[in-house]
Amino acid sequence: MELTIIGHWGGFPKKGEASSGYLLTHNGFHLLIDCGSAVLSKLQTMISAERLDGMILSHYHADHTADIGVVQHALYVGKFTNQYDRTLPIYGHMLDLERFNQLSYKDVTAGIAYKSEEILHIGPFRISFLQTHHSVPCFAMRIETDGKALVYTGDTSYFKELEDFARGADVLLCESNFYKGMDGSAAGHMTSEEAGMTAHQAGVDKLILTHLPHFGDLSRLKDEAAEQFTGEILMASEGLKIII
Ligand SMILES: [Zn+2]
Ligand SMILES: [Zn+2]
């Protein structure tokens, strides 16, 4: 599978860039993971929204969902201008029914609930879930296909079970919204040091730091994670492609 970083900023997008959005492609199937602010604009530099086969959301904070409404509008307009004749499934949890219900729009998108205790199959992907420690219900995802595994943490503070969940993954796409020495637990976010610890304890192959902060020297995040994890570490950046 191929992972492309569309947006990687925590909280809100940096000027000219996007907040959380990741495109996962395998055998021509396009799954969008999270749909934050400016994600549609950036996605269209890669593929049109009409080529998406599915969308899945970790949680309903705006930096992960702000562009759902405009994706719905783009597809709706496409029904008239491009003979777009599909209904895009948007997978989300049902722990916030008001937000879940907004995933369905006309015959353009259809909200589909995932449950943390059930395996979800979307196209070629097998997806399992783990609820994280965040200020609203949020789920980490383990996405597997062809013997490869990507684990995306969503938003979370550090907790031990995440290591078991990420065990042996080829890639850990891990939030790192804080620097070493800070306490992210109240905000529901991890530090660079905790991201590195999680990658090390889980024995993953590669760590990608994402959901990056708007303060401090970002290169420190990688150095601090590298004190804990000796494998390859990448900083998420717009357009970065990883073959998994
Ligand atoms: Zn976030
Ligand atoms: Zn959040």
Report the strand count.
Answer: 14
Low-confidence runs (pLDDT<50, min 5 residues)? Answer: none
The computed structural class is alpha/beta
| CATH topology-level fold name | Metallo-beta-lactamase, Chain A
Name the ligand types.
Answer: zinc ion
Total of helices: 7
Would you write up a description of this structure?
It comes from Siminovitchia terrae. This is Metallo-hydrolase YhfI. InterPro entries: Metallo-B-lactamas, RibonucZ/Hydroxyglut_hydro. Residues 18-200 form the Metallo-beta-lactamase domain. Keywords: Zinc. The protein has 244 residues and is an alpha/beta fold. It has a single domain (2-243), classed as Ribonuclease Z/Hydroxyacylglutathione hydrolase-like (Metallo-beta-lactamase, Chain A, 4-Layer Sandwich). 22% of the residues lie in helices and 29% in strands. The chain has seven helices and 14 strands. It has helices at 39-43, 62-65, 68-81, 97-101, 161-165, 192-202, 218-226; strands at 2-7, 21-26, 29-35, 54-56, 88-92, 109-113, 120-122, 125-131, 139-145, 148-152, 171-175, 206-210, 232-235, 241-243. Strands 6-5-4-3-2-1-14 form a seven-stranded mixed beta sheet. Helix 6 packs parallel to helix 7. The radius of gyration is 17 Å and the shape is globular. The mean pLDDT is 98. The site of one zinc ion (ZN) has 7 residues, from helix 2.
